[in-house]
Amino acid sequence: MIEKSIIVKLVDEWLQGKDYFLVDVEISQDNKIVVEIDHADGVWIEDCVDLSRYIEDHLDRDEEDFELEVGSAGLGQPFKVPQQYVNFVGKEVEVLDAEGKKTKGVLKEVDGRQFTVTAQEKVKVEGKKRPVLTDIDHTFNMDEVKYTKYIISFK
Q1: pLDDT band at residue 1 under the 50/70/90 scheme
Q2: Nearest partner of 15 among 129, 99, 43, judged by Cα
Q3: Of 47 and 74, more confident
Q4: Helix, strand, coil share (%) of the chain residues, nearest 5
Q5: What stretches of 4-152 adopt beta strand conformation (E)?
Q6: How many C-beta atoms lie closer than 10 Å to residue 133's C-beta?
Q7: For residue range 110-128, what is the model confidence (pLDDT) as tens digits?
Q8: Quick check: 77 pLDDT over 90?
Q9: Beta strand pairing status for 32-38 and 67-72?
Q10: Tell me: the pLDDT tens digits for 54-66?
Q11: How many CB atoms lie within 10 A of CB 99?
């Protein structure tokens, strides 16, 4: 089986000087290699092809057969690396926390492995009969949420 560290090293070499970043590398038992990359402005198919060729040129099919798939991290899929959080600041996201509570709101900021989402929630205000929609900030740790994902909106 091909070592994940070898693929990560090859991808890192290809990424040098580019604005792309590695999201994930998965290798199955039957040597199917799946590489996900991302970019703040989206991923171009030509770059996926270029990376695929780069990886293939540095692996020996005579030594070990493999299947290779290079693509972008899918929109609407859970974030896997901190750079994805940074790229979506100002956009609407959904967070499922460790207790199973969902929070939908705008990704306000990212600080290291913590991020803040501003959600509109109904809050009881003294002197008012009905709750009032109020912006509430929720801070999460990336390592302690089940997922965070971008909410695709067609408005």
Answers
A1: confident
A2: 43
A3: 47
A4: 20, 40, 35
A5: 21-27, 32-38, 67-72, 92-97, 102-111, 114-123, 132-141, 145-150
A6: 9
A7: 999 999 999 999 988 888 8
A8: no
A9: parallel
A10: 999 999 988 889 9
A11: 7
Spatial distance between the Cα atoms of 5 and 63, rounded to a whole number of angstroms: 17
Q: Per-residue confidence at 155, pLDDT binned at 50, 70, 90?
A: low
Taking each helix axis from N to C terminus, what angle separates 45-57 and 4-15, rounded to the nearest 10 degrees? 130
The token pair at 46 is 């030509």
Q: Name the residue type at position 95.
A: V
Q: What is the token pair recorded at 43?
A: 């991923």
Distance between first and last Cα of the chain: 46
Give the list of residues 6+ apart from residue 107 with CB closer than 8 angstroms, or none: 85, 88, 89, 90, 91, 92, 93, 115, 116, 117
Burial of 19: CB neighbours in 10 Å, binned 0-12, 13-18, 19+: exposed
